[in-house]
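Researcher: Go.
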Amino acid sequence: MTTPWVDPQLCSMWYGAIVGGVVLGGGGVLGSLAGLWAPRAKACRWILGGMQAFVTFGLIQAAVGIVALISGQPYGIWYPLLLCGGISTLVMGLNLPRIRRAYMVAENRRVQAEALRNM
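Model: Structure:
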């Protein structure tokens, strides 16, 4: 086993609290806003951009966690990275196509309504 990058107990405690609480909590708020605003076609760039940022951040966390695991870092270092990165990537990555589709449906409804008004 190699020398730990940081203290494993402090890493798991602080990283889990800060990243798990703030970042994944923010992801929950973003998901709620997406469910509220996507059918109305509001804030499309913010919602889709935010979800893409969560996927990217999650992939980076997971990659660092895999590097930590392969390099022989203790459990308290690689586990929070893989857990938070995996959750963020999977939840946002799997919901991103659905939210994108909801925005497309809302935009198609708007275009059809505009066409009916112009008849």
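Model: The chain has a mean pLDDT of 90.
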